[in-house]
Amino acid sequence: MRIKHTVLGLVLCISALQAVSSAQGKTPQAYRGDKENLHVYLLIGQSNMAGRAPYTQNESLPIERCYLLDNSGRWEPASNPLNRYSTIRKDISMQKMNPGYRFAQAMLETDKTISLGLVVNAKGGSKIEEWSGASKFYREALRRVVQAQETGTLKGILWHQGEANVGNPDKYIDKLIELVERFRKDLDMPELPFIAGQIDQVPSINDQIATLPDRLPFTGFVSSEGLVTFEEWHFDATSVKLMGERYAEEMLKIQTSRMTE
């Protein structure tokens, strides 16, 4: 009898500790809210979008009201590295902080009534040609974002790529436009916001990216002006977070313009 009481006491103690921990936000739960209140964003591209910037212990904690689509199509609390579930990524040890971290925080700071769902499926070193047509990279991004739409509402796409095309920048913008149009067609969302980020100090690529808003409605670009790299192409932590803020500013601008038209 004493043993049973001891076991029962341990069970009750553990349950109480779990309840306290949950109340303190130490064990955040997966998203279980309304589909309309979970704003979904697809993040794709190469290494800077996969995430190569180091992050602190504090930046490894879950982002409040933000969720990450896992490899089974479920939402879990989002934390760095956000590219961990990419189906095309390189080794997990290479996945660090990407612009999505600060993007999510900035979007959530703007609207306290929503949650964010991130679908991150980037691949370091990938060329834009590898994202075209019926390619594996495109198919996987499309498959996962369609999966996310079962429980969330798609609001936009963030793209950061171009370093792998520096040696062959010819018609980069045409290939980018084709990618945007394919997503919009396959998702049946002709006004889906799409934002492309500039790379580090390569006018032959960046000048083309800057023309995207003039070529397609409800698109935008974020400047890499003033950003700093700590490796050949990879933006440092401060720059990655600044780029995330710029993505958020541009996304909000496009979403506002859609509402006023």
Supply database-style keywords:
single chain; 261 residues; alpha/beta; Rossmann fold; seven-stranded mixed sheet; 7 strands; 38% helix
User: What's the helix-strand series?
Assistant: HEHEEHEHEHEHHEH
| pLDDT < 50 stretches | 1-27
From the N-terminal CA to the C-terminal CA, the straight-line distance is 73 Å
> Roughly what is the average pLDDT, rounded to an integer?
91
Main sheet characteristics: 7 strands, mixed
Judging by the overall fold, what is the CATH architecture of the largest domain? Answer: 3-Layer(aba) Sandwich
Radius of gyration: 20 Å
Large-scale geometry? globular
Task: Tell me the helix content.
Answer: 25-40%
In CATH terms, the superfamily of the largest domain is SGNH hydrolase
Tally of domains: 2
